[in-house]
Amino acid sequence: MKKTALRMLALCLAVVVMACALVSCGQLAGVYENNTFGLVTTYTFSGNKYTRTMSGISEYDSGITASGTYSISDGKIHLSPENGHDEILSFSKSGKTIYIADMEFEKK
User: Fold this and answer.
1) What tens digit of pLDDT does each residue of 10-68 get?
2) Positive or negative CA dihedral for 10, 11, 13, 14?
């Protein structure tokens, strides 16, 4: 009886760990930044929400900001801004670096 209960407990724990791992795969958290030739693009992720800010076009540039929701699946990130058109871009992650549309963003 004890062996069966122990096996069931181990199986339940394994299922919980795998479920948590799967849920966390599609979520990002924090600030990621790319600086290419002075044009700074920053993504801030929290839950299923994102904010993208692009600035540095000129010294008078206060930046362009878009916010909305996002999801990640099958190597793509689907951005749905509150005001604008949806975007589906290539996505990958390696350590603290993400790649969106082949652009490298480092976690800050």
Assistant:
1) 544 444 444 444 444 568 999 999 999 889 999 999 999 999 999 986 667 678 899 99
2) positive
Write the CB contacts of 101 (distance below 8 Å, at least 6 apart in sequence). 89, 90
Distance CA 37, CA 79 (A): 24
Which two three-digit tokens encode residue 37? 């030739």
Say which amino acid occupies 50: Y
pLDDT at res. 72:
97
The pTM of the full predicted model, rounded to 2 decimals, is: 0.73
Confidence (pLDDT) at 35? 95
Tokens linked to 56? 């540095």
- Per domain, the residue ranges of the chain are 28-107
CATH class of segment(s) 28-107: mainly beta
Distance CA 70, CA 11 (A): 33
Query: Which one-letter amino acid corresponds to residue 16?
Result: V
